Backbone:
């Protein structure tokens, strides 16, 4: 039996995006299509996240980082907790008491104490801030993938690269 291989390679990303609108080329903020049901919208919660400031806590040998979170959704978001699990950019879970409630298009700031004792010039890929939130009465996780560059002063500078969402319990697993 002879197997004939295609002579051309499949189109790359550039070819797939050719003719796509500018808005469709932006990174995803968790807006993958979902099946519409009577009680649930097709959209997902959407946020923007950015680092506001960083200050060294010399007593605890950690970095106090202030973050800005903005709700891009048309519905309120209640932020319950955040954690940073990466070994080079790590923080235990921080539960917000009281929770951070963001109306549509509203923003807030919060602080997290982060362990990052890496040398100047180090780049940490694939660090995450993982949020537990409630949106439209349902529990969700928001994953903010960040890139961390330690500057010449030894301070972590963070850039958000991608934000995705996952409804808790969608697969039957709730933890």
Residues:
């Amino acid at each position: 039996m002879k197997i004939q291989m295609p002579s051309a390679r499949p189109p790359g990303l550039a070819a797939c995006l050719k003719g796509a609108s500018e808005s469709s080329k932006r990174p995803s903020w968790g807006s993958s299509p979902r099946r519409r049901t009577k009680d649930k919208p097709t959209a997902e919660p959407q946020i923007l996240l950015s680092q506001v400031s960083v200050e060294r806590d010399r007593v605890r040998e950690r970095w106090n980082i202030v973050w800005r979170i903005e709700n891009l959704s048309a519905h309120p978001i209640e932020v319950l907790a955040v954690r940073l699990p990466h070994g080079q950019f790590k923080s235990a879970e921080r539960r917000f008491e009281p929770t951070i409630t963001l109306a549509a298009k509203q923003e807030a700031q919060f602080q997290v104490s982060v362990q990052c004792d890496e040398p100047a010039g180090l780049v940490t890929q694939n660090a995450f801030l993982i949020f537990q939130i409630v949106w439209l009465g349902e529990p969700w996780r928001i994953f903010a993938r960040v890139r961390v560059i330690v500057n010449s002063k030894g301070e972590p500078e963070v850039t958000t690269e991608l934000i995705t969402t996952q409804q808790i319990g969608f697969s039957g697993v709730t933890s």
About this structure: The domain at 44-167 is CATH 2.60.40.10 (Immunoglobulin-like).
